[in-house]
Hints:
Helix content is 51%, strand content 12%. It is of the alpha/beta class. An 8-stranded mixed beta sheet has the order 3-2-1-4-5-6-7-8, sandwiched between helices. Helix 6 (162-174) links the parallel strand 7 and strand 8. Helix 1 (17-28) packs across helix 2 and helix 10 (233-240) packs across helix 11. Residues 316-328 have low confidence and may be disordered. Nicotinamide-adenine-dinucleotide binds next to helix 1, helix 4 and strand 6.
Amino acid sequence: MDANTEIGRVAIVGTGLIGSSWAACFLAHGLDVVATDPAPGTEDKLRQDVEAAWIALTKIGLAQGAPTSRLRFTADLKEAVADADMVQENAPEREALKIKLFAEIDSILPPPAILVSSTSGIPMSRIQSECKHPERCVTGHPFNPPHLIPLVEVVGGAKTSAETIERAMRFYTAMGKRALHIRKEVVGHVANRLQAALYREIAYLIDQGVVSVADADAAVCMGPGLRWALMGPNLIYHLGGGLGGIHHFLEHFTGSMTAYWADLGSPDLASPELQKKIVDGVLEEIDGRSFEELSQERDALIMGLLELLSHRGKTKPVAASEHIADDS
Length: 328
Ligand SMILES: NC(=O)c1ccc[n+]([C@@H]2O[C@H](COP(=O)([O-])OP(=O)(O)OC[C@H]3O[C@@H](n4cnc5c(N)ncnc54)[C@H](O)[C@@H]3O)[C@@H](O)[C@H]2O)c1
């Protein structure tokens, strides 16, 4: 039990891509995890996924030994959540399903346990709408894969208590996450809206034949994406303003920025032609690499980047005199 969060046992409801990664994250932080999923064969898949995540978690020094001793699986939802201090729900992104599931868990799980949804964008006010204890329901939206990516968006619904939000923030912080409190409910929270805004333009440019799928990816990864991982768009634009900083940047570039905004596209992502272009382009870009190969490559690169970022602020600034010495 973590003294700061009073959470020692977590129930994972839904053990697909996100649920299994959360399970690995919580196990690596020494919590007891009980997982449940109604689909047949999910226990074996969950254990394989947790073992796979364990390799990365061991490398970054979080995990020791085998993950199995503190991981329990049961197909019975009631049994899974009955003794939990916190539930992390990761069922499919369907509003009616989540409303019903939350109401069911809420009727089994005694307060003060908290009930958290990984929902990518369904407002908590709707998910908690049929709960008897809506005040202990909150969104804790991770980024894939949650066992490696630090960001978690914490969002309350209309009936969520300030105490629940605070407990969720403390819990994710204790799990090594960068928890952000999103102050107003908006569809898609914040980070998914940002991704959606960028992807809207990517799909538009692909649709218009301006750029190929692989080149659109390169335009992000080899350019702005490199900087965004380090500082974020506001600080990057501060540097883009030169010595005049963000003030000069806004003075100088507001005209062109608003002209770009006026020209941005609204593609029909549901169109079969556009979907075929994107699917064909992605298959060409991955060039036969399997899902596992790509996931492992992504995870290794994320770990390298996180290691690099952990030195942020620790590097001694290079004195001007050292630059001069280098030039000579
Ligand atoms: N995939 C992502 O990148 C991502 C990122 C952040 C958040 N999320 C959110 O996490 C949640 C899960 O997404 P996913 O990608 O893991 O989906 P997934 O399809 O991989 O997993 C969903 C799991 O839920 C199970 N399930 C179905 N009905 C259920 C029920 N009634 N009770 C409990 N479990 C049930 C399924 O058997 C499946 O194992 C969604 O709300 C999604 O929006 C997804």
